[in-house]
Amino acid sequence: MKSFISTLSILFLLSLLLLPGCASLSSSQTETIEGNLAIAPLPATMQAGSGFLVIDEKMKILTNIKDFPHFDPFKVFNELFQRKSGYALPYLHDKSALKDSSHLIKVTLVYNNYNIESYNLKIKSSGILIVAGSELGVFYAMQTLRQIMRLDAVPDSKGSQRHWSIPLVDISDAPRFTYRGMHLDVCRHFMPVEFVKKYIDLLAYYKMNYFHWHLTDDQGWRIEIKKYPKLQEVAAYRDETLIGRFGEKPPRYDGTRYGGYYTQEEIKDVVSYASDRAVTIIPEIEMPGHCLAALAAYPELACSAGPFKTATTWGVFKDVFCPEDSTFVFLENVLDEVLTLFPSRYIHIGGDEVVKTSWEQSDFCKDLMKKEGLNNSKELQSYFIQRIEKYLNAKGKTIIGWDEILEGGIAPNATIMSWRGIQGGIDAAKAGHDAIMTPGGYCYFDHYQGDRETEPLAIGGFTPLDKVYAYDPVPAELSEAEARHILGAQGNLWTEYIDSPEKAEYMAYPRAIALAEVLWTPVDRKNWDEFSVRLKQHLDRLDGMGVHYAKK
Ligand code: TNX
Fold it and tell me: 72 CB less than 6 Å from ligand 1?
């Protein structure tokens, strides 16, 4: 197959030879397999064949994997395919039962420790061959096929399209980074389960593999914890919500009680939906700050005197968890329930923007600092995080914290999420810790993406699509060995000013597609002009999926 060069490619090569200054040739001027198939993120290598393969009712999946006890890499594709075509592709395990060996999607696993997400997808006129490093690679091959077939752009219309003609191609692919994430804050504004699932499906479509679910904050506690019913009765609700921009004088409120939470049953359902899509959900339980909603329910967890109310406005609040034994008992009990719901190896424990005045004024904290030999309140924050880390490590979990957890000494095994620029990531990697890059200037999708005058209200900043696309998560300051600690990056969607699923999609897309390409595609294959051409086709597909993306 590799020896086939399509007419298109020949034309393209000829045009390269004939045109001086061909380096500036953009794919909008000439047709390429990249532009034709419009796969995003762009695969590592693609070679066009000539001709087409027809997928029809005769097609079957033949695989050497007997059952998929943990993860069926065809399930998502097949469900979608059935909706669009009216039939599903059957699985076969035994080739001998076959009369002819065409009309097959033939899958071979070669367990590849080096890159379990890698795959080779060959579309030939006789059928499809997939060779992959693991079921994950097969899953990504099927997502690529889903894109090549433009399955999502076709209306569901009772499975009317029975035959699919797709161009021949040979794709070898593997991600650049192992952590490809998107975050969603459901505390400032609650997002319904159906929307969370749609958000996760899009992550899978763009080969992202982590969903960071920001579940607790000052303005609402969104995860059911059976041991502490007041988290549901009190912390999940606020009396009202700020209208307009934070800081406007006088502040205006809507006077409407607001809230909601996910039951444990709903969470299990979302976790299993995500795991079918090779997406790991990392829950975030914020501590010791951003916890006013929890303090409203259980004021005894603060060093300062209550009563407290779930926040109705944005910003940073001075009341935080007190590092007393009883607080740790509460948090450990909460985490015990969290661990039963989320199989993720990573648990995010927050750690950002902790106002420490209540600790500095507390006799209990002063005594504790003396007893533990802590010099200042930043070290007390590290004591807090390290105590929680020890608890979670003993249960086989790794903590992720926002970069403030570096300040008073990093917890021994923590992974850092670098959000206040890239310095946190640099410091973590130099100290031999893993880091995930989420710098505000590139990865905050709550920022404006266009002209403030015409865009809907956003928190501030300016992070347009091309800036996201240009981001390189590996800081230049790092040596090659240190750079291996940069696991990847994540787009963050804080929802102070995002009060509906439609607006969440508007802020996330298409910027999340640009980030997906930053995280997956080899850096020397990235090209903004060429991406812009492919993106146009993706906007059509997003239309097909009913995504309310930002149109320029
Ligand atoms: C800072 S980013 C926060 C969030 C806000 C966000 C708004 C981070 C770790 N903390 O609580 O929502 O800014 O952009």
Answer: no
pLDDT value, residue 508: 98
Max CA separation in the chain (angstroms): 82
Ligand 1 atom at minimal distance to the Cα of residue 402:
9
Could you tell me the sign of the dihedral formed by the alpha carbons of 135, 141, 147, 151, in that order?
negative
End-to-end CA distance of the chain: 40
The answer to whether residue 8 scores a pLDDT higher than 60 is no
Picking from 258, 251, 255, the residue whose alpha carbon sits closest to that of residue 235 is 258
Q: The whole model's pTM is what? A: 0.94
324 is an active site residue:
no
DSSP string spanning 196-220?
Answer: HHHHHHHHHHTT--EEEEE-EETTE
**CB-CB contact of 40 with 517 (8 Å):** yes
Question: Catalytic pick from 353, 379, 407, 455?
Answer: 353
Close Cβ partners of 367 (under 8 Å, ≥ 6 residues apart): none
Closest CA to 181 of 412, 389, 445, 427: 445
Distance 377 CA to ligand 1 centre (A): 21
Provide the pLDDT for residue 102: 84
Q: How do strand 435-437 and strand 415-418 relate by DSSP bridges?
A: parallel
- φ/ψ of 402, rounded to 5, equals -65, 160
Here the tokens at position 63 are: 């695989």
Q: Is the CB of 337 under 6 A from ligand 1?
A: no
All structural domains of the chain, each given as residue ranges with its CATH number in brackets, are: 2-173 (3.30.379.10), 179-544 (3.20.20.80)
- Contact assessment for residue 30 and residue 12, using Cβ atoms and an 8 Å cutoff: yes
Residue 92 phi, psi dihedral angles, 5° rounding: -125, 145
Residue closest to 507 by CA, chosen among 437, 439, 540, 460: 460
Q: What are the C-alpha distances in Å from 62 to residues 94, 134, 214? A: 8, 16, 40
Summarised one tens digit per residue, pLDDT across range 273-323 is 999 999 999 999 999 999 999 999 999 999 999 999 999 999 999 999 999
Mind listing the pLDDT tens digit for each residue in 100-131? 778 899 998 887 667 899 999 999 999 999 99
Query: Is the C-beta atom of 308 inside 6 A of ligand 1?
Result: no
DSSP annotation of 55 reads: E
User: Cα separation of 334 and 344, whole Å?
Assistant: 16
Residue 328 contacts by C-beta under 8 Å, 6 or more apart in sequence?
Answer: 387, 388, 391
Distance CA 214, CA 182 (A): 11
Q: Which of 349, 424, 428, 432 is nearest to 391 (CA)?
A: 349
Give the tens place of pLDDT for each residue, 19-48. Answer: 333 333 344 446 899 999 999 999 999 999
Whether the upstream peptide bond of residue 69 has omega within 30° of 0, thus cis, is no
Residue indicated by tokens 């015409």: 454
Count of Cβ atoms closer than 10 Å to residue 69 Cβ: 7
